[in-house]
């Protein structure tokens, strides 16, 4: 088949690699001038690093360079994905600096994709070149759930800007020197906010962090000794959080062993308070460490709490910016407690908007519910929109691995190897999963697209559909040791072997055969 993929981040690249190996003709569009998605040079901010160690952030069949540090920075990750694309011959299918402006069903089972150049180094989505249109048999949406930053519409912005102030998203702040000797507000308290605050704090005249809500932060090394991956990047670590369909050990941990489970996870919170000196800093979050799943599971940024302790950074907890304005001709910001801070530069690390503006409204209505949550079976397939897939809408601790396994699932489904339930059963499963995520994550699931902390459950279910899960002994080992994506390196070759066997057994259809669903579930 001829398949269009929107997005050249990890989800788009893995989809392109697996689908190309499965014999499909692929084209990948991205409005950025380079691959990597959030790691593109047009989007990465100073201080950005991975949240997972390099081994856990690797793809199954392409390890990261041995000379990379355990937590690579943004430029290193982008270089890694560029090398992945080159290694697997994806350069020839990439259409970079090209924005997809529309993608709609063509009425005969395919998709009409309209795209235009964005310029050599724009990556802004403000296409200026001549639009082109091409028809594809299938469409994979891999634009990512961290694509468009959500920047609050603050009152007084015109007055603030006229006084020389600058407001930008974290992904729009690229040069730390732009903050030199300036009074900076960083809005947010997630990992990206803390990362950029540490970088800015080295050069700014003042750096104030405006935190609407305190979040639990996990040290890279508990007590300075135990790598956090040994605790949370294991199957046991995932089992500490209740899942919709628990296994045997999970049923024990959330039943008779509930007390033990609570002590295991909340002890990390106790250590974090002591290790970071949160009591003294006045930055202890409400609740307990197990509540981390209801906010944002974040790795503590190296140097952040040290910066607060030495006065380089000032955190204003439980507050928001209510307006921007000018005081005596100087740009300033008013906080929700009525206080005023000077603010030459306001950097908003306030999340992202999960949008697919290139899809027609009638398609968007069919893939989302009334709240805008994506209704995707296995986080991949809309129930009633034939020929459309999503990848990257399963953000997790192991985002590259989950994206890779989703690509395998898509290739398997295209080859008729996924035994899909009836549409009604798929819809019920999707609604049930979303209702569970509403309750378990207090609706903090990026419109149904964030699956933390259920990364491995998702991989198990996706591969279980294909009968391609990794061996029981390896999964057992992952209960105590950190999951290594390399354990999944044989999944794609096995899928390709099955596809070839099926193709050998079934004569191909003529090229002019209509592209219509061949199964009731489609």
Automatic annotation (TrEMBL):
<dbReference type="InterPro" id="IPR036188">
    <property type="entry name" value="FAD/NAD-bd_sf"/>
</dbReference>
<dbReference type="InterPro" id="IPR050346">
    <property type="entry name" value="FMO-like"/>
</dbReference>
<comment type="similarity">
    <text>Belongs to the FAD-binding monooxygenase family.</text>
</comment>
<feature type="region of interest" description="Disordered">
    <location>
        <begin position="107"/>
        <end position="129"/>
    </location>
</feature>
<keyword id="KW-0560">Oxidoreductase</keyword>
<protein>
    <submittedName>
        <fullName>Flavin-containing monooxygenase</fullName>
        <ecNumber>1.14.13.-</ecNumber>
    </submittedName>
</protein>
<keyword id="KW-0521">NADP</keyword>
<keyword id="KW-0274">FAD</keyword>
<comment type="similarity">
    <text>Belongs to the FMO family.</text>
</comment>
<feature type="region of interest" description="Disordered">
    <location>
        <begin position="501"/>
        <end position="522"/>
    </location>
</feature>
<dbReference type="InterPro" id="IPR020946">
    <property type="entry name" value="Flavin_mOase-like"/>
</dbReference>
<keyword id="KW-0503">Monooxygenase</keyword>
<keyword id="KW-0285">Flavoprotein</keyword>
<dbReference type="Pfam" id="PF00743">
    <property type="entry name" value="FMO-like"/>
</dbReference>
<dbReference type="InterPro" id="IPR000960">
    <property type="entry name" value="Flavin_mOase"/>
</dbReference>
<dbReference type="GO" id="GO:0004497">
    <property type="term" value="F:monooxygenase activity"/>
</dbReference>
